[in-house]
Write a structure and sequence with these properties.
The chain is of the alpha/beta class and 252 residues long. It has 8 helices and 13 strands. It has 2 domains: 152 residues, Rossmann fold (3-Layer(aba) Sandwich); 85 residues, Hypothetical Protein, Haloacid Dehalogenase-like Hydrolase, Chain: A, domain 2 (2-Layer Sandwich). Helix content is 29%, strand content 25%. Strand 12, helix 7 and strand 13 form a beta-alpha-beta unit.
Amino acid sequence: MNTMYNLLLLDVDGTLVQSKEGALPSPRVIEAVRAASAKIDVAIVTGRPYIFTKTVIGALGLTGYGVFNGGAEIIDIATGEQIFRQTMSVEKVREAITIALPYGYPIFNTIGDDEIAIKSPEDVTEVSDKLLIENVPTAEALNIVAALEAVEGTVTHPVSAWSDEDVVNITVAHEHASKRYGAERIMNMLGRSKEETAAIGDGHNDVPLLQAVGLGIAMGDAPNEVKELADAVTTSLAEDGVADAIEKFILK
């Protein structure tokens, strides 16, 4: 493979770190990302709000732009300035809440770095970056995702939860606030083509990211349906899969 990659986009939970609060990348992954950053542009593309990603960014020594809230926000991480925001209307958020409430799981409305607990549709009075439904049993998640897909103009994904239980979180966002759109905006801002961009991810919400770039790399412990849609598969999180991928495709 002779392609030269000039931009690397990295998911956070399940890719750089374990899906839990306070988790940091391993020393080997930190070293590999820093080595890549010295050679090419490296950016975070995560479902997390910016405030919950700052310690990971700091450990990796990244500067430049980052994609947060699943694609709803682009932030200049050197200054904390919001460069771009794609919100959902109050009406769409209320429609999604009406569908999700009867299932009985905690619902949070995300506005920038704030996650606000929601008890009824009327609790929402301003535009939203994303809706978060927490700690849904994995076996039930796809049914709820399917129900939420009835809300036109939005995109719904199961994402990793910060829990040791067999549960996931579900996010609902504007249809143009997926990781695909976040990745494409970063590529445009940096003047990078699809062909010279690589990305690494592990979850269902990373599939749009992996398909937006020239080389989409799935983590070794990603679900099979994610790995099947990727261009390459690296080793697992526990085996420092990001470092292995960087060494193979970026630092070669």
